[in-house]
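Give me the 3D structure for Helicase C-terminal domain-containing protein.
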Amino acid sequence: MQRDYLPVIIFSFGKRECGNLARQLKDIDVCTEKEKPLIQTVINNALQIINPDDRQLAQIEDMLPLLIRGIAVHHSGLLPILKEIVELLFQEGLIKVLFATETFSMGLNMPARTVVFSDVKKFDGQNIRYISAGEYIQMSGRAGRRSIDNKGIVILMAKQRMEPSVIKSMIFGESDYLQSAFHLKYHMILNMTRVEGLSPESILKKSFYQFQNSLNLPRLEEELRRLEKKYDSLIIPNQKLVAEYYDSRQLLDAYFREMRSIINHPFHILPFLKPGRLVRIKHANMDFGWGMVVRYGTKNNPEDTTIENPEEEEEEEKEKSSTQENKINNQINNKNNQINIEQLAPDDYFVDVLLYCDANSIVAKTADGITTGVRPCYDDTGEAMVVPVELSAIQSLSAIRIFSPKNFTFPQVRQTVYDSIQNLIEKFPNGLIPLDPIEDMAIKDESFLKLIRKIEILEDKTFFNPLHNSPYLPVLYNRYAKKVSLRNRIKQLKKKIKISQSILHLDELKYRKRVLHRIGYLTEDDIITLKGRVACEINVGDELVLTEMLLNGVFNDLSVEMTAALLSCFVFERKDNKQQNRVKEEFAVVFRRLQEIARNIAAISIECKIQIIEEEYLDSFCPDLMEIVYAWCQGQSFADVMKLADTYYEGQIIRILRNLDELLRALVSANKIIGNLELEKLFNLVIDKTRRGIPFVPSLYIQ
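Predicted structure for Helicase C-terminal domain-containing protein (703 residues):
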């Protein structure tokens, strides 16, 4: 307010966080006394269209005091009428501080003077990641109102240090490309099949999805010609000998990587990672050289830390670390304990190593727990740092251990230890003595010994190659490596061209048609049967399961309330797949009938080569809201229904009820084709009982 940054949109990546942030401004008022009556008038007029009881909903009572002070929340969990009130007030400039999720930046032309990102990371349903350049552009584009502001202000609130490259790619990166989300559905195939002169194949050819893939064809062909010309121009003397040497070296490198992964497995390496052990660290293309082990531990242990604690906490931390190491070592060394080696995942462990790094390096962690922000230093301007590294970064273990100080907090201590490492390296001009994996580390696994023998044979083969001691070998080797790279790129381009020239989804169309033939929706001549015509009318939910349920009499003996409850399984998709289906006893019988039909459809689909997993397919029919929809159909108030839906937002329940209404109308149309007047009457009764109250109030935009 003091800097005149209002109005401001504060983007947060969680519905709950939006509400929490807004409630923290309970003592702040950004509206003038002249604006308050205007806000109250808009609210009163808008709430006239809903029942008096619905005006007492908790979400409305929580929001109204915020709106009067010029503060609001906007996300998909809000009541539709509340979202529209917020949008109308924001357009009129009466809302000065808006906490919103990223949905507010999609499809709504509502700019502000300032945009604030409460975080630069979001959960995308699978992982926590930085927002993409496209997402940043979409949200930050709301900053600056045309003809009102001469500039827009964007504030990023990073909760931890970010790499410059990440910030650069976020702010200066390109917006996300428009990608077709086209996918085949049985409803689409059946409707295209019954239209004379139209086939699913022709629609596939003319789809935007196919167009996007074909659009790149001229560019791919031109690139292919260029690479083939470049490949033909690379002439290599004694190419056969060079190729033989190259193949041997590549295979040898692969064997060395395999050997390193075995040596670096926790079962083998952890007993030798005592403090003071010298190890060589290499990560990606960065070679840090030799360093000293400080300690090691597991990532998932909350007591483990990756940087040293202050001196006053040293003894406590040392005891914790020692306990953790002893626990791991006891598990590994106890022969009476039957260990499954595969359970010891290398990614679960870290090693703190004293390394010589660039002075500007700062130890940070990515969302995946990987160390970042550290770079090696190859001159005298660096600094010795304790860096947490993964086991895979250890390239060599030395047989030498040196004295390890108790505390690495002070730079002088770290530098002294690093200087002693350098003095040792100078005493061994031929390199530090490594630990022998067989003699010293006692790796006696038969597969490892076979790998060692393979390496020895290949090393002899490369040694006796005529080019081994040739001064021209580096040049020839690099030239041939470049030719191999070109050959691989040519293969990939040819594969992309073949895909672009073919009709995409054609195999899937063939498999789906095979399913329709098997269950009697299409004849052998691709003529639609009665079952197929019924499925054509159902454009919400799983058309095949619903059609089978209609024709197998699943709904014949159900009450109006139970019918609505069962149909809710088709319109609600749970986002948390880890949560198990919860079915109350009174709904279990009808839900099992649904599952039996779905299991039969899944089995036929798998036999017809459709790529589905039966359990995942069955889990897509979610019974979590059966009780809630049943109660709503019984006539309970929306407030009472929300008491049953304590883990869901009001906006989510309303969307489900509206989707259910759309499904019921489709089922009424389907039953007209069947000619079952009783079922048609049943679904109309369900519509009458569910289509009421605040979920179906008309939009304020059409009042």
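The chain has three domains: 8-172, 273-435, 537-702. Let me know if you want a second pass.
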